[in-house]
Amino acid sequence: MKNKKVIFQDWGLLDYQQAWDRQEQVFAETVQAKTQNRNNNTDYPVINHLIFVEHPHVYTLGKSGKPENLLLNEAGLTNKQATFYKINRGGDITYHGPGQIVAYPILDLDNFFTDIHLYLRTLEEAVILTLADYGIQSGRYEGYTGVWLDADNERARKICAMGVRCSRWVTMHGLAFNVNTDLSYFKNIVPCGIDDKDVTSMERELGHPVDINEVKEKLKRRISDLFQMEI
Fold first, then answer.
1. pLDDT tens digits, one per residue of 26-43
2. Which residue(s) pair with 82 in the sheet?
3. CA 20 to 30 Å from 62, out of 31, 97, 164, 173?
């Protein structure tokens, strides 16, 4: 029987390194439990997790990214009160900061579907449906991951970036959804390695700040519904 019970946690505002260490621990425990099941020919349910967090100003570079897409030196990072990490997810460089929902699903996809592309599209759909709750029409941009507005014309702008890691069909890392994000920080990078597209947020699109806790609840519900899981 597939286990679609998921433990949800909101870590609040947490330093990136601390969150990464905690995420790695949960990921390792999940992979270990799954491996033990296979080695012992048992079928104990592997616990799935959905983690929401906000980070202080930080830039992260995925394993396929280019370091030159960070446009700040050490002094510039200090001036912006930002940190920088090379990490083990896919994708290029992105920014995390206050007012942005970062979601880290740590899921055993054997409980859902073993298709990483479907996994990414499902996460995108959760964000698209959440934005629709606020009257913001969004969608996908062919050839790119994430969620975009006006993807069919020259005004294309990204509102949610994605980058994941998957080992033994267990996922980590996830998505970064701009709600009330300070978009000026994106000017210090080539976001996701794309130098000719804009970045936006719910606040910018609506013209006013949004209750981020309300958005979190809506996003959590959408993820739960799409993955048909109990949170």
1. 999 999 988 887 777 776
2. none
3. 31
The 3-class secondary structure across 132-196, one letter per residue, is HCCCCCCECCCCCCCEEECCCCCCCEEEEEEEEEEECCEEEEEEEEECCCCHHHHHHECHHHCCC
Which amino acid, 211? D
pTM given for the model: 0.94
Domain locations along the chain: 6-54+97-226
CA–CA distance, 123 with 102 (Å, rounded to integer): 12
Q: How many angstroms separate the first and last alpha carbons of the chain?
A: 17
Average pLDDT for 1-6: 68
Mean pLDDT along residues 138-156: 94
Which listed CATH number (3.40.50.2300, 3.60.20.10, 3.40.630.30, 3.30.930.10) goes with 6-54+97-226? 3.30.930.10
Cross-strand partners of 161: 176
Within 8 A by CB and 6+ apart from 230, the residues are 4, 5, 6, 224
The average pLDDT across 197-211 equals: 97
Please report where in the chains the tokens 């979601």 appear, as a residue. 103
